[in-house]
Amino acid sequence: AATSLTSALASGLLQPAHSCFLRPHPFHLAAVRDEVVVTSGRKLAQQFKQEVRQEVEEWVASGNKRPHLSVILVGENPASHSYVLDKTRAAADMGMNSDATVTISHRYTPKEQLKKHTIFADIVISAAGIPNLITSDMIKEGAAVIDVGINRVHDPVTPKPKLGGDVDFEGVREKAGYITPVPGCVGPMTVAMLMKNTIIVLRLEEREVLESKKLRVAAN
User: Fold this and answer.
1) Of 135, 155, 154, whose CA–CA distance to 145 is shortest?
2) Which of 34, 52, 146, 165 has minimal Cβ neighbours within 10 Å of its Cβ?
3) Which residues form a coiled coil (predicted)?
4) How far from 43 is each of 39, 46, 47, 195, 213, CA to CA, in Å?
5) pTM value?
């Protein structure tokens, strides 16, 4: 979300003034200038929450099981614990069942200890940056394995290095129900959704600017 907002801000600075949600400011070093525009995601977040709340109720009304949020927290950072708590509260507010399952695991967790968690997981997400960290003996039959890791590894076929993830793809694919390749899945989706969210933010902010102008005109 922070990355999307940053991109939106950068895009806004590069767009013509009529389509930019930022007020046009000349770049200068004068001591006196207009007050900076402080952007906030709270209003936009509330709008998205309302949309999700409605979609959840429509989903349940159609006979489907109410969505359930489970969280795996990697590490013991107190700020991360607070971040996860916010997510579970938001899930409950939007009509989802929330149950935060905290599992402490990171790149230095012994593999046998890590396996005790992954072997029972319906979904395994790895983003440690360690080639072949997740192997077929570490997951249960039919699990969904999402590889977010990105590593430059030696290609045994050619002398050139290649990109790979954290998962032993060839081994795990024989056991998993779903698996994402690296490269070719999480990376392209992240880029695509970043671009999409940037446009969404720009359009919403532009709409707010236009509505604000209309109100000022009406007031005059």
Assistant:
1) 135
2) 34
3) none
4) 10, 5, 6, 20, 18
5) 0.56
